[in-house]
Amino acid sequence: EVQLLESGGMLVQRGGSLRLSCAASGFPFRSYAMNWVRQAPGKGLEWVSGISGSGGATYYADSVKGRFTISRDNSKNTLYLQMSSLRAEDTAVYYCAKDSEFERRSPLLVYWGQGTLVTVSS
Amino acid sequence: EVVMTQSPATVSVSPGERVTLSCRTSQTVSSNLAWYQQKPGQGPRLLIYDASTRATGIPARFSGSGSGTEFTLTISSLQSEDFVVYYCQQYNNWPATFGGGTKVEIK
């Protein structure tokens, strides 16, 4: 059974930094691209960032480019999102999601975690 | 980027009835369209991909159709657990984009 467990969300001040983690199990982690998708309170879904199975290719939404960094440790089956220069509009539940392929710029998100809440105080 | 428009925003339906949700894209996405279901407090679940293929474990009452710029998700006989929010997403163009969602509520 595929499981994705996010952690690291918390209350942080505007301009601050935070690192989210996603522990994956139940599938060959290194064989699939992974993504972060966020959902502001009461709002819809926004794709944030993606990374290929090898970690060699990364993609970012314009809204976070230059501030967020996605990475993965295939030896630990873990996905990360390093967030810096946080803004009030970054407040959201952040979901980790597994892609259907090893590498894809626009992902098909086959499995999602339960999410972790990031709150940026202004 | 591709703009996704879902309609209606909310639909009221009785249990056992059929409902059809619409998703329109601002440019063609071929058949690279997915539908997700989201229950309160949970991450989304993939229902349909490639516009009309049910994901693993999805009941047959869920069906998708369309191509190009017009897509629909049909739930043939609504069960109590189906009264939640549904999103469409295109994965043909970068960046991937989502519709604003349709909430299916009990009439």
Question: How would you describe this structure to a colleague?
Answer:
The complex is a heterodimer of chains A (122) and B (107). Chain A is mainly beta and 122 residues long. Chain A is built from no helices and eleven strands. Chain A has strands spanning 3-7, 11-13, 18-25, 34-39, 45-51, 58-60, 68-73, 78-83, 92-99, 109-112, 116-121. In chain A, the strands form two sheets. In chain A, strands 2, 4, 5, 6, 9, 10 and 11 form a seven-stranded mixed beta sheet that branches. A four-stranded antiparallel beta sheet of chain A has the order 1-3-8-7, with no helix packed on it. In chain A, strand 5 (45-51) and strand 6 form a beta hairpin. Chain B has 107 residues and is mainly beta. Helices cover 0% and strands 50% of the residues of chain B. Chain B is built from no helices and eleven strands. Chain B has strands spanning 4-7, 10-13, 19-25, 33-38, 45-49, 53-54, 62-67, 70-75, 85-90, 97-98, 102-106. In chain B, strands 2, 4, 5, 6, 9, 10 and 11 form a seven-stranded mixed beta sheet that branches. Chain B starts with a strand and ends with a strand. The mean pLDDT of chain B is 97.
Throw out a few tags for this protein.
heterodimer, A: 122 residues, 7-stranded mixed sheet, 4-stranded antiparallel sheet, 11 strands, B: 107 residues, mainly beta
Radius of gyration of chain B: 13 Å
Largest sheet of chain A: 7 strands, mixed
- Subunit arrangement of the protein: heterodimer
> How much helicity do the residues of chain A have?
under 10%
Largest chain interface and its two residue counts?
Answer: A-B, 23 and 25 residues
DSSP E strands of chain B, number? 11
**Number of helices, where a helix is a run of at least 4 consecutive DSSP H or I residues of chain A:** 0
Low-confidence stretches of chain B: none
Mean pLDDT of chain A: 97
In N-to-C order, the SSE pattern of chain A is EEEEEEEEEEE
What structural class do you assign from the helix and strand content of chain B? Answer: mainly beta
Portion in beta strands of chain A: over 45%
- How far apart the termini of chain B lie comes to 36 Å
Q: How many alpha or pi helices of chain B?
A: 0
Beta-strand percentage range of chain B: over 45%
| Radius of gyration of chain A, taken over Cα atoms and rounded to an integer in Å | 13 Å
Give the overall silhouette of chain A. Answer: globular
What structural class results from the helix and strand content of chain A?
mainly beta
* Helix content range of chain B: under 10%
The biggest beta sheet of chain B reads:
7 strands, mixed
What order do the helices and strands of chain B follow? Answer: EEEEEEEEEEE
